[in-house]
Write a structure and sequence with these properties.
The protein is 57% helix and 9% strand. The chain is built from ten helices and six strands; from the N terminus they run ααβββααβαααααββα.
Length: 265
């Protein structure tokens, strides 16, 4: 009996030892994967830094895209806006029964998220292109810290709007937006955006930037936003035959936009 008991105890001890060994191996493997991941991540950062510094398809001195990446961005913007009428800051059929007022700041990262990850692109491709809705952009300062820079960048976009290219400028800006809180927006950056717009007359655009009525329009937009209770961007206000509606999501999805539209039709 004692011998069998001892055998059981020895077998149990072996199982425990094997279990401890397996646990140790798993922990070692996990540590190895973590170390490998850190090393690979560091190498990736170095590779990106080298590519950017060498101008290999990344941003140039202005931080704007170049090469293949820029061509892809331009194609995306052109495809989005193709066939849709523009007039100043208005995108879509001027006789559309519903207007979506879009209060935005070109340096706002949430506006960028709405453009890239939210429902704006699909909404433009469907409802706006079909003539059901027109979008009217209004400037409202949030992310841009310096009021002078805010006015300068918004006037630059409005100057493109004098040639019915406002939305080309805005979409290209959002897709190449710099880091919030930095001073990346300067004359070289704004001119670089303008140069990316197919068909934009650069000399006319430069002249329009000195048009005092555009600066007044920016101030009027901000005043309208304050009167409407706007306190962040993007703020979207749908106005239709029935009433007004605002999507509740910070970055509205396509479904959120459709629901707001249904409330006002």
């Amino acid at each position: 009996m004692a011998s069998r008991t001892k055998q059981k105890e020895e077998a149990r001890a072996r199982r425990l030892a094997e279990e401890r060994a397996r646990t140790a191996r798993v922990r070692q493997q996990r540590r190895l994967r973590m170390v490998t991941g850190v090393v690979l991540g560091a190498l990736a950062v170095v590779a990106v830094a080298i590519a950017v510094s060498s101008g290999g398809g990344g941003g140039g001195a202005t931080g704007l895209e170049t090469g293949t990446k820029l061509a892809q961005t331009q194609t995306t913007v052109n495809n989005l806006l193709s066939g849709i009428p523009q007039s100043g800051t208005t995108l879509g059929n001027p006789n559309a029964p519903v207007t979506m007022y879009y209060y935005g700041d070109l340096q706002c990262p949430t506006c960028r998220a709405f453009t890239l990850d939210g429902g704006f692109g699909q909404f433009v491709s469907n409802e706006v292109k079909a003539g059901k809705v027109k979008v009217q952009y209004r400037a409202f300062q949030t992310a841009t810290k310096d009021p002078s820079t805010f006015q300068t960048q918004q006037v630059a976009a409005l100057a493109a709007g004098k040639q019915n290219k406002f939305w080309n400028f805005t979409e290209l800006f959002y897709r190449q937006q710099g880091e919030e809180g930095t001073s990346y927006v300067n004359d070289k950056y704004l001119t670089g955006i303008a140069q990316q717009i197919p068909g934009l007359d650069l000399a006319t655009w430069r002249s329009a930037r000195n048009d005092g009525t555009l600066a007044a329009q920016v101030s009027n937009d901000v005043s309208a936003g304050n009167s409407a209770g706007v306190n962040g961007t993007p703020t979207l206000i749908f106005q239709g035959p029935r009433k007004t509606a605002t999507p509740s999501s910070v970055v509205p999805s396509y479904s959120d936009l459709q629901q707001a539209l249904a409330q006002v039709q």
